[in-house]
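Our working data are protein records whose layout never changes between entries. An example says more than a description, so a record of this kind follows.
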Amino acid sequence: CHPRSSANDNASGVAAGMEAFHILQELIAKGELAPLERGIRMIFIPEFTGTFPWLEEMGSDGRKKIKAGLNLDMVGARQGKDYGPITLSAIPNAMPNLAWDAALYVLDEIAKSAPSLSSEVQVPMFNYEIGDFEAGSDNYILSDPTIGIPTPMLGQWPDKTYHTSSDTIEIIDPFVLQQSASFAASYAYTLANLTPKDLPYLMVRGRHYFICMCYKKRLALQQKNENPKKIYASAALRLKARVASNKAYLTYFKESPPELLDMVEEENQWISQMVEGEADRFISDFYPDFNPQYEEAPQKYCYIPVRTFVAPLNKLEDFTAGDEQKTKNYNTFNEDFRSKLNGPFSLDSLIQYNMDGKKTLWQIAQESILEANEGTVEYVHAYIQFLNYLGLVEIV
């Protein structure tokens, strides 16, 4: 997607992937690692413009064979005043999976870089941050439910030289690149050789992250003086997504042992009770007069939109090119709605993911807005109506 080669974006991702493959092959050949139980594939393709045709050529049956992915995009710059931490971006709620828990678990291990001064807890020698889902690289294509390849992204932000001619080899830090390559190799090998007995370790890590994020999200909304209704709804959405991802544990293997089903059911029962109790306590602490009630959806938002395409849209203007009226309507939509958002690309992607042919516009809006942390029902309605106008969505 770039007019010229760039070091961190994204020669660093290519380099990390190649080194990960090299070391895995070497360790397996030496017998220090067991042979792979599942295949690992690395793809070198132009961002977006290569990903779409590659997935099309693979076909639906080919895509279904892939358990998970990892997107390496900007992973090697020297951390300091010009470059931020290594970031691990989440998989969208609409794509239940266990890959995210595996990524969290592996990152914990990679971050054990050096002993602390006086305790057994090891500390990282690089900065990193775990973030929400963000569209902007191939992970947003692969993680679309119509593609079905849950893919976290390892990246880096901020990046002062992003998309500039200053993104040269001088800004690369071999140590940061090594950490990214270590993560890639460990994540891929973990998923390739995952067995049912490994799952409790992943689930415990996923549970810990889930509990922490529930607290952080509630607190962030409270500090922004959000309506308690939104805080309550946010907790319900995160619980729904976590329950679905726990159930996805059962689909990773061709045959799941009976005890795995018991583990998933017990976990979901426990976290449901915990989250509901935590949310109720938080509301009572800060909003003692709030009484959660079912909200009736306005009739105009009760229709069900259905996608007519596979994989997420990239540039809406591609569907208006050469048509003066469509271009004019697109510009009006941009001016009236999209220009008012911080990250319309991520929100638009989440709206598409949530169009599963079952959810109403109202439900799609609630879930997409809460996950994106911005937007309005009016925006979601206008966006879907514009897709309908372009023939990309049917209304039922």
In short: The first strand starts at residue 71 and ends at 72. The beta strands are 71-72, 86-89, 114-115, 122-123, 128-131, 153-156, 305-307, 393-395.
